[in-house]
Structure formats: C-alpha cells, structure tokens
Specification:
By secondary structure, this protein is α/β, with parallel strands linked by helices. The chain has one domain: SGNH hydrolase (Rossmann fold). The longest helix has 25 residues. It is globular. About 5% of the residues have low confidence.
Length: 284
C-alpha cells in the first residue's frame, strides 16, 4: 500500500511570510508616524479672538452646545465673549493641543469637554473592532487604526481643522430613524502626564480650566441608566484626580432637546444648557 505523507512547507516560504509580515507592520508604523491624525490646524485669528475671553472646547457636541443667537454670546460671564472651538471626534491629544493654544493666547476660562479623556464610543460610526484595538494598544493603537481605515478607504473623521463657532440648530426635536445608539465604555486618560502639564501651564497663566460632560438623550446614549451612572462616577473620579471642577447632568435629558441620539442639542436644548452651565460657572 502506498503511503501519502503531507509535504511540509519549505523554510524559504516561512521566511518569506515572516519578512512580508514584518514589512507590512513596519509600513503601518511608518505611516502612523508620518500622517499623524492628531495634527490640528487652528484658525489664523484664533489667538486674537480667544485672548482674555472664555472658550468652550470639545467635539461636535460642544459645537452644538450653545445657542446660535446673539443673545447668548456671553454665556459664562457678562463681560467676556464665550467662544466655541470644536473638532468632530476630537482626540485626547488634539484637546490638549487646543487647550495649550488657548492658554498661550491668554484665554480667561476654558470649559473643556471631558469625552475625549473619559471613554470610547462603540457602534455606528466607530467599528467595534476598531474601538477594541484602540483600547488594547492605547493612543498609538487609535492612531494606527485611523491610518489603517484611511488606507482601505473607510471614513476617518479626524479632519484636524479646528472650527471656531457654533452650529445652527436645524431640527426641532430628536430624530432616531430606527437607529440604536452605541454604548459608552469608560477608560483611563492615555496621557496623564500631558494633561497634568497642560493644567500646570494653565495655572501659571491664570487660565481657569473647568470640565463638563455634555448632556445625553434618554433614548440615545443615555438609554442605559446603569451605564450612565457608571460613566458619571468614572468622570467624577477623573475630575477629582486632576482637581478640576466638573459639570454634568445628574440624569439624561428628554429626547425633545436633541437633534439626534448622539447628543447634539437642538435650539431648546442649547438654551437649557446655556442657562445651567452659565449659572454653574458664575456661582464658582
């Protein structure tokens, strides 16, 4: 009887596979270092506008946090303009860079959105595997994921161009359109030393830094009350760790105050937020 013996792969082929894998990995690392998704571009007049004024800084949630109305130009203090600097899906590193620019420009108060420092999104716009990869490989993993998504033609929302201004409210109420809001997963600050250095620099320049967590809709990101409570405690602990005053809503807000389930406020929601955050800041 003839015996058939499976042929073992030759060593040359194995070596080629290892070399190819190493080349691909090195290429991604090189691309990550070269493309730098965290790089920001500030408006040319950023420093002049922010000097001695108040700045609300964060993601697109910050851009839709305050009314697009001349009556609300001085929300935090009656003698200072309240400007808004935003970047969609802003990262922790980008937040720190814009904070540093605001401090260098002489901003009086910076109201800093905490989302970039406190949690990961998971769901509709960020693939679950991408969020997991970012959590495992920390901030370098997030940057590598962005480069990989761009390389294969997937959407990358890190545009890097900071917007100074507010976004008009188009919708009177929230439109879910059958979509289910993704969940929020708490995480630690990636660059604790960088945040501490930025806050120390702010103190040297007499810039007041405050934290806020944008309100969430009760049928959107705020639908899971247990997770909302978990996130609230996580964010309170973060604020305490860095000795930063914190504003957050004790519970999710009614859906009718939002344009979508992600938490972008409509006109009514912005008026409520402006009133509450203004009272909180002025009472300090």
């Amino acid at each position: 009887m003839r015996r058939f013996v499976a042929a073992e792969p030759e060593a040359g082929w194995l070596a080629a596979v290892w070399v190819l894998s190493g080349t691909i990995a090195a290429g991604f690392i090189w691309a990550t270092l070269q493309k730098n998704p965290d790089k920001i571009t500030l408006p040319a007049d950023f420093a002049a506008l922010v000097a001695h004024q108040d700045l609300l800084l964060g993601s697109s949630l910050s851009r839709t946090a305050l009314p697009h109305d001349a009556r609300y130009t001085r929300v935090l203090h009656p003698d200072r303009e309240t400007l808004v600097a935003s970047l969609p899906n802003i990262s922790e590193a980008q937040s720190l860079d814009i904070l540093a620019a605001a401090v260098a420009a002489g901003a009086h108060t910076v109201l800093l959105e905490v989302n970039a420092f406190a949690h990961e999104y998971n769901g509709l716009w960020n693939c679950p595997w991408a969020t997991t990869l970012a959590g495992v490989l920390s901030e370098n993993g997030r940057r590598l994921t962005l480069v990989a998504r761009a390389a294969v033609g997937l959407s990358v929302e890190q545009q890097g161009r900071v917007r100074l201004g507010r976004f008009p409210a188009h919708a009177p109420g929230m439109v879910l359109a059958g979509a289910v809001a993704p969940a929020l997963f708490p995480r630690a600050v990636w660059d604790g030393a960088g945040l501490e250095a930025a806050l120390a620099d702010a103190r040297r320049h007499d810039t007041v830094v405050l934290l806020f967590w944008p309100p969430l809709p009760e049928s959107g990101y705020g639908r899971d009350r247990a997770r909302y409570a978990q996130m609230s405690e996580h964010i309170r602990a973060l604020a305490k760790q860095y000795a930063l005053p914190l504003w957050l809503a004790p519970a999710p807000w009614p859906d009718g105050l939002f344009m979508d389930h992600f938490g972008h406020l409509n006109a009514s929601g912005r008026e409520r937020f402006a009133a509450e955050i203004g009272v909180w800041v002025r009472s300090r």
